[in-house]
Amino acid sequence: MSAYSQIADHFGRLSALSNAIGILQWDSDAMMPKGAAASRADSMALLRVMAHEMAVDPRIGDWLGAAEGEGDLGAWERANLREIRRSWTIQTALPADLVAATSRAISACEMAWRSARENADFPALLPLMQEVLRLQREAGVAKGEKLGLSVYDALLNDYEPGGSAVQIDALFDDLAAFLPGFTQEALAAQARRPEPAAPQGPFAVEAQRQLGLKVMAALGYDFDRGRLDISAHPFCGGADNDVRITTRYDEADFSKALMGVIHETGHALYEQGRPAAYMNQPVGSARGMSVHESQSLIMEMQACRSRAFFDFAAPLMAEAFGGQGAGEQGLGWEAQSLWRRATRVEPGFIRVDADEVTYPSHVILRYRLEKAMIAGDLPLKELPLAWNAGMRDLLGIVPPNDRLGCLQDIHWPSGGWGYFPTYTLGAMTAAQLFDAACRAEPDVLPGIGRGDFTPLVFWLRTHVHSQGSLYSTDELLTRATGRPLDAGVFKAHLARRYLDQA
């Protein structure tokens, strides 16, 4: 076997192990009984150590050196070696005992977060989350020394390869200066329009589920390679060719679960559309989390909060909840009214329920807080006070308790430090990709109005999904849209949708 064949075979087996970890993690988050938490934590720690040992196998360095000198490799194979070297450099920075300790700390903290969130009890979570933070810092130091990066950038690099706090600071400081004034303009424009009628609940969970399944099918989700379930925090997970999504239901507001389903379906479409020939290789992986978030937000925000979408979806919604007809029964089920409600701007406490205008402020807050906690400038015990102060400054509201504040997300308890900025980087990327898709394929919006997402999904499959990690994030976006990330496209999109509505 050639050196390239040997290294590709090794990473194919590592991918199979990672798939098993992914399914166990999904089960932990969606279906596992509480009594299994301790034994599951032990199993996950062992599997993650095994995966880490495979990822730092000393033969990899030799294989890389030999394979990189082979002259018959194509562009995909050379990109695969580049991604393997990047991964190997990161993984060899982490000792196995740190990987095991991190896995156990995360498993314990995730389980404690569920009850702490339910009871709005931050002190109960504090010691476990403190341990996760300590280990994340330790990992960031180790990776940073190997990569020549700051501690925060080393953690960010796991989710956004090539990203840096310096770049994000510039983008987010610009948005933080823009958003408060724009939000007030959008609220003023909204106040000049009649209040849209609200469909009256309750909305049965099973009816919500069936509606979600219909919309997933329209978007192009492959049910032979995935499923829809319930979890405390919506997510997309699983394994290659087994891409599972979850949502959570509120009988008082069906739109929360539906938009959650659409968001996670966008993630799943990306995973289901990755290049089949390289599915089990690093080059076949998604190109970082800002691109991944762009795929969920293209569906949730760009496509499914467009006016066209409600021409298709309004009859489905009315049918699902018995809202057909005129008079009181039909009130609020008109496409125009549903669209107005879906694009309503209203500052709120919960990030995943936030409207498109205020959502970036939620992310900017989390980014600033996690950067300060990693640096040691913000003690973890002071997080609730700092969170509330940031909400007041950015959104003008203060959560009444920590369940609606710093306990609402699972990311920090699950070790996702450095993840949050990718949400708003993804929103900007989504606006740019959707703009390019509509320019290239004039039937994108008319198709959405008919419930035909094929033109949009085909364009995304061609320019994003099928490209895996062949290119860097900047290269991928430039090839797809003709330019690198441009915040002006996102701002122009907001202005069209929220200031220019008839």
From TrEMBL:
InterPro entries: Peptidase_M32_Taq. The keyword RNA-binding does not apply. It comes from Ancylobacter radicis. Belongs to the peptidase M32 family. PROSITE patterns: PEPTIDASE_M32. It holds the Pfam family Peptidase_M32. It comes from the Bacteria. Its EC number is 3.4.17.19. PANTHER family: CARBOXYPEPTIDASE 1, METAL-DEPENDENT CARBOXYPEPTIDASE. Keywords: Carboxypeptidase, Hydrolase, Metal-binding, Metalloprotease, Protease. This is Metal-dependent carboxypeptidase. The keyword Protease applies. One of its GO terms (molecular function) is carboxypeptidase activity. CDD domains: M32_Taq (cd06460). Broad specificity carboxypetidase that releases amino acids sequentially from the C-terminus, including neutral, aromatic, polar and basic residues. It is an enzyme of class 3 (hydrolase).
